[in-house]
Specification:
two-stranded parallel sheet, two-stranded antiparallel sheet, about 0% strand, transport
């Protein structure tokens, strides 16, 4: 009977969908959609979506051969499960009518009601509301997918689906609302997050650390990566898609999008080279793995800052993020924390570095949304706000995720049996293998 529950729920949703809102048209005379902005956001949405398959290759190439399919599927399934939740009530929780600055009303856009016609989101008045909803969906998809690298090679697939569902509802969507909704608690406090350093990377990073601590180590914590070529392909797809992630967050085909495009390119390039140079100093040979990890760390760090800082300062952000994350990877390796693919040192720490440096280098001349300039320009207000927010978000994301992991484990045990871990999750969870 337990096996029937998921399909019964899906059938029930389909029935409810037939009875739900479907033809409510809204045409406003005061709205003028822009075809260029709409075309760019459509393109950006597709670019952000391809990041999740890119992440699948990135992670899949790093694990052992017996766990490649399982690891890749954990990313891929987010595109399916989170899309359903987002359409039913997820978008409403993130961007619906404000409730206390921490969550949206799930009834506001229930089943995507009110999306027909030329209705728009107040922050993006030149693109259709449904397009904004689909653009934001792609962010909601990749956030839980990022966590999977921390507990790769040791979780049950069915239990994992329960966890990402809970994480999305109780961690990601409240953070998205608090940060990106005009009435959100962090937005009103003055926190700047251009494209998700706080919402996506910090939340995923702290959840990754909580997962690694709770699930403890693998039976065999070291392995040879299955396919370095997958890692390179994944990095290329991530970097390509990240232009939609960051430049798309400008909301249209405009100069700010071009600026974010440039800062994204520069920060990632600098971080990749920095990672290689640090490895050489440590006596290692320059590696494809190091270059790829460095590039992704640079992308992570520039994400909150892309549309707020200058191109020259993006060099500083890329360099700093690579040095700090590289150090945290080294320190983590000296502990018993088995964060399989170093999600916390790279995404969590990278996101925090980006958040702090946004408050250092942000300037009003780049983006008028910057009401108080960064610390580098002699103003302290934004920096203090970001430090306080960093601590608050970290506590919420870490302990909230830890609670959800424990709850998931009670509903459906997360850890696979030891013999299944030895055989590999591809065979034991999916009956497939390379």
């Amino acid at each position: 009977m337990k096996k029937m529950i998921p399909i019964i729920v899906l059938i029930a949703l389909a029935i409810v969908g037939m009875l739900g809102p479907c033809a409510e048209m809204a045409n406003r005379s005061d709205v003028k959609l822009d075809s260029g902005d709409t075309a760019w956001l459509l393109t950006s949405s597709a670019l952000v979506l391809i990041m999740t398959p890119g992440l699948a290759f990135f992670y899949g190439g790093m694990v052992s051969k017996k766990n490649v399919i399982s690891t890749m599927l954990q990313s891929f399934i987010c595109m399916c499960l989170i899309s359903i939740v987002w359409v039913v009530f997820g978008f409403s929780l993130a961007f619906g009518e404000d409730i206390g600055g921490i969550i949206g009303d799930p009834r506001t856009f229930y089943m995507m009601k009110g999306m027909l016609g030329n209705v728009v989101w107040e922050g993006l008045p030149t693109v259709p509301l449904i397009l904004f909803a689909m653009f934001q969906l792609k962010f909601a998809i990749i956030a839980p997918a990022l966590i999977t690298g921390a507990f790769a090679e040791r979780v049950r697939f069915n239990s994992y689906m329960v966890f990402i569902l809970l994480f999305s509802i109780f961690i990601y969507m409240p953070l998205a609302h608090a940060t990106w909704h005009p009435e959100g608690l962090l937005a009103r406090y003055g926190v700047l997050d251009f494209a998700g350093g706080t919402v996506v990377h910090m939340s995923a990073g702290w959840a990754a650390l909580a997962s690694a601590l709770y699930l403890k180590g693998r039976r065999t914590p070291t392995h040879s990566p299955a396919r370095i070529s997958y890692v390179i392909l994944g990095t290329a797809l991530l970097w390509f898609g990240w232009f939609g992630f960051n430049a798309g967050s400008a909301g249209g085909a405009n100069s700010l999008a071009a600026h974010a495009f440039a800062t994204t390119t520069v920060a990632s390039a600098v971080a990749a080279m920095s990672w290689i140079f640090v490895d050489i100093i440590r006596g290692k040979k320059p590696s494809a793995m190091g270059a790829c990890i460095g590039a992704v760390v640079g992308l992570v760090a520039i994400t909150p800052a892309a549309g707020f800082v200058s191109i020259s300062h993006s060099i500083v952000i890329g360099l700093t993020a690579a040095l700090v994350s590289n150090l945290f990877v080294f320190l983590r390796s000296k502990t018993h924390i088995d964060d399989t693919l170093d999600v916390f040192p790279c995404h969590g720490v990278g996101g925090m570095v980006g958040m702090i440096l946004t408050a250092v280098f942000a300037h009003n001349s780049i983006n008028p949304l910057v009401k108080v300039n960064g610390l580098f320009f002699g103003e302290t207000g934004l920096f203090i706000v970001h430090v306080v927010a960093l601590v608050a978000v970290s506590i919420f994301a870490f302990f909230g995720s830890l609670l959800l992991i424990k709850l998931t484990d009670l509903i459906a045990p997360l850890r696979v049996h030891e013999k299944d871990e030895v055989l590999g999750l591809d065979r034991t969870q999916h009956d497939e293998e390379l």
